[in-house]
Amino acid sequence: MLLRNERKRARSLLDLTGSSFSSESFDWKEAARAIKVAGAARDLARSRIIHAQISASKTNRGDRFLLNLLIESYGKCHSAADALAVFQSMPMPNTFSYNLLITAFAQAGHLEEARSTFEELPLKSVVSWTAMITAYANVGHVDLARSFFDRMPQPNLVSWTAILQGYALAGDLEGARQIFYSMPEDRDAVAVNAMIVAYADSGHTVEARGLFDGIVQGRDLVSWNTMIQAYATSGRVESSRWIFERMPARDVFSWTALLTANAQVGGAVECRRIFDTMPGKNLVSWNGMLLGYSQSGQADLARVLLERMPCWDENSWNTVITALGQGGEMDAARDLLEKYQDLGSVVVWSALVKGFALNGYLEEAEKLFHSRLDLDTVAWTSMLAAYALKGLMDRARETFDRMPSKDLVAFTALIQGYAQSGHIAEARRVFSRMPKNSALSWTTMIQALGQAGQLQEARILFDATPQQCVIAWTTMIQAYASSGMDDESLELFRLLDQAGLRPNTITYLGVLTACSHAGLVDDGHYYFVSMSRDQEIVPSVEHFHCMVDILARSGRVSDAVELVQSMPFVPDSMALTTLLNSCRADGDVGRGASVAESLLRSHPENTSGYSLLAGIFAGATEEA
User: Do 423 and 394 touch, CB atoms closer than 8 A?
Assistant: First the structure.
């Protein structure tokens, strides 16, 4: 039904855009180039305009090459209805046309249609099989992807690499290893790079580096870039720079990988320096700079940069809308909607739905969501997550059941919603339906049990997890820390190294939280220093918050104040409120007044400063 409605809307829009074009000025080469550009930018409106112009051309309307390009472009725009309309208009679709349609269905989340098209294909090529493997792998159904791989008559290196990447994407390191070491001996740099990514995503940066160093022949530019990204994923910015500085040659992807590494830790100043120094920029580079501004809380600069960008994609809009939402600037997000809503882009609309939904503007999100029939999985999942966050589980479940395609993020959001609402039995039922060959599915359920206070069951599930990765360990460490089981949290952290895993930035948040609850000042300080000294992880503002809390809880107010003043960030409301609470507990009127002044001057909306300061003065009066 959804696909039929999408097709009807696509045709009506095509009629509107096609009426003003003449076939006399048609240029075949220019049309081919324009289609490729529109697809790369995921510009649905532009793709439809070009489609209309081709349809109006008497000599080119049936050109298979151009029509195949259109199917590919519509696929990148996540418009399966348009892709299908083009395919059905072709006089003689070839195997390449079928493969492009399969991919288009998959990109739009219509996996059943993709599979049906594949089964109808009279002659299935290696490309056809690989398209199905990639389709299922990209949404976390690595078990179904593997079933297609096992049925292939003669898988080639591309097919092997596709299933390897599927296991890596699902967080199944053992599955990725098994495929990698079963591959034909002539595996290329693409396969090696995929395995490096699998190691890095699971926190095994040592193994990733070992594989990189072991490439005797064929270490290409992509290998170097992959290693930079591997270190960036684990928060090791300095190691990323070390690799970058030793590269024999660099391209735009090298610079962008380094830029992204800094952006992920909120290093906006360094990001801007790298961005301005880059000899060339692509869309990912611009998005990296947007992320740098967003992570450092500079939503206004992110918005200005967005309007300067030569083209956008889903990540561009998601980053800016999320930054505006986190800064409480949803009026600015509405302005963006009014300015760009005529673009007709599914990407823009879905990003706006996500921004409004996940920042608490549920009514606006619903209006946007229900105003279109062709929204992608991002919008559906965002609405589901927003309902779950508000505790509206009936509406969350209804949205989940209506989704045209369910990915791991959707399952995760539903499980988390049930867990937060105290419906742990429902969370278990959803878990039983999830793709089990995914670290995310196991980790989500461990987190759900932890949130429900069922730590013993969470630990049993953790011990049974088939793919041990740093995410699962981190989730269990955080579950213990959040429940006040500090000894268990710290003991599990100490065992992490024995498991061959390296902690990431979130792991350290769990450990520092445990130290804060247990009053372990020296241990907390050791871990805080160790994360940058031993693991090359740049502390975020959240790590500083934990350390400030550790010092403040132990009565070391002067040390806490000194740490806040030395932070490489502008002290935020949370840090200053923590200090003010500590001053109240200590009855430190002078320092409390100074901190309260800073809090009320920089965050006038935080009225708790007045009540905390009043409490300090009241305590001092009683003592007097």
Answer: no
Q: 500: which DSSP letter?
A: T
* Secondary structure (DSSP) of 211-232: HHHT--S---HHHHHHHHHHHH
Residues in the chain: 624
Using an 8 Å Cβ cutoff, are 474 and 510 in contact?
yes
Distance (Å, whole) CA 451 – CA 420: 7
Identity of the amino acid at 613: L
For tokens 């299935």, the residue is: 124
Q: Residue 183 above 70 pLDDT?
A: yes
Integer Cα distance of 5 and 599 in angstroms: 53
Q: Where residue 18 falls among pLDDT bands split at 50, 70, 90?
A: very low
Do 72 and 100 form a contact (C-beta atoms < 8 A)? yes
Say if CB 59 and CB 37 are below 8 A apart.
no
Q: 287 and 295 in contact (C-beta within 8 Å)? A: no
CB 347 within 8 A of CB 313: yes
- How far apart are the C-alpha atoms of 279 and 140, rounded to whole Å? 36
Global pTM exceeds 0.85:
no
| CATH code for the structural domain at 540-623 | 1.25.40
Q: pLDDT value at position 9?
A: 40
Q: How far apart are CA 434 and CA 379, in angstroms?
A: 20
Nearest to 515 by CA among 506, 528, 524: 524
Tell me which residue of 293, 342, 344 sits closest to 322, measured CA to CA.
Answer: 293
For position 16, what pLDDT does the model report?
Answer: 34
pLDDT digits (tens, 9 = 90+) for 418-445: 888 888 899 888 888 876 556 777 888 8
Whole-Å CA distances, 532 to 92, 269, 503, 504, 520: 61, 19, 11, 11, 19
Contact at 8 Å (CB) between 199 and 208? yes
What are the start-end ranges of the H helices in 171-263? 173-180, 189-201, 205-213, 221-233, 237-245, 252-263
Residues of the chain with CATH 1.25.40: 540-623
Q: Which amino acid is at 125?
A: S
